[in-house]
Specification:
This protein is of the alpha/beta class. It contains six helices and 15 strands. Strand 14 (about 210) and strand 15 (about 220) form a beta hairpin. Helix 1 packs across helix 2. It starts with a helix and ends in a 6-residue tail after the last strand. The chain binds ribose-5-phosphate. It catalyses: aldehydo-D-ribose 5-phosphate = D-ribulose 5-phosphate.
């Protein structure tokens, strides 16, 4: 068992009969979805919402019943990966471009469980480039605003054959902050810029972090403060 699998499987144990569940995105969330799928096959009854088209496809493959937001008022639990986790459980997410749906699902869940291999645990956020989701309309103006405000490199995310487009039809700009001294302040500042839909900083949202290690061990950390 590898570190991501250990964290994913440990998180799946938190899913109980009757729960509504948010399914994250990425290579770590994959293992949680896989294990939840096995549990569903053995009779676990849950309803789930996926945070990306890729995770939705995975849920369908594992026959995990999916529902629309209109059908459920709130989620009991959401399980998702992260690109960086700091000691206060602030996160950078969005390496896979799913940050907007992930944040929506996370903040509408009673418990947001982050699963990460130990390499994701960092003393300060920012070495991983911060993904910022931007509307395509007048995109260049939004980028100009960012560049005027922060003296760090910004790079539009590309994919083979052109610009990267999120499941929501937006672009991603990756910002190389290097070290983010005050994630809460940057969170608010970025949210206030017109043209930015959302960004990958998750501050005061994680309830639990499950760290997976290469030897298969896991460590569970609980947040001391409440969610946003
Ligand atoms: O957009 C993608 C998500 O935020 C992922 O959860 C994050 O990038 C971590 O992915 P992985 O588990 O593949 O490292």
């Amino acid at each position: 068992m590898n570190a991501k699998q250990a964290a994913g499987y440990r998180a799946a144990e938190l899913v109980k009969d009757g729960m509504t569940v948010g399914l994250g995105t990425g290579s770590t969330a994959y293992y949680a979805i896989e294990r939840i799928g096995e549990m569903v096959e053995k009779g676990l009854r849950i309803r789930a919402i996926a945070t990306s088209n890729a995770s939705e496809e995975l849920a369908v493959k594992y026959q995990i019943p999916l529902v629309k937001a209109a059908e459920v008022g709130h989620l009991d639990i959401a399980i998702d990966g992260a690109d960086e986790v700091d000691p206060q459980m602030a996160l950078i997410k969005g390496g896979g471009g799913a940050l907007l749906r992930e944040k929506l699902v996370a903040i509408n869940s009673s418990r947001f469980v982050v699963i990460a291999d130990s390499s994701k645990m960092v003393p300060h956020l920012g070495k991983f480039k911060l993904p910022i989701e931007v509307v395509p309309f007048c995109y260049e103006w939004t980028l100009r605003q960012l560049e005027a405000r922060y003296p760090v490199p910004f790079e539009q995310r590309m994919r083979e054959g052109g610009k990267y487009v999120t499941d929501n039809g937006n672009y991603i700009v990756d910002a190389a902050f290097g070290k983010i001294d005050n994630p809460a302040k940057l969170n608010e500042e970025l949210k206030a810029i017109t043209g930015i839909v959302d960004h990958g900083l998750f501050v005061n949202i994680a309830s639990t972090v499950i760290v997976g290690y290469e030897d298969g061990r896991t460590e569970v950390k609980e947040a001391s403060c409440s969610k946003e």
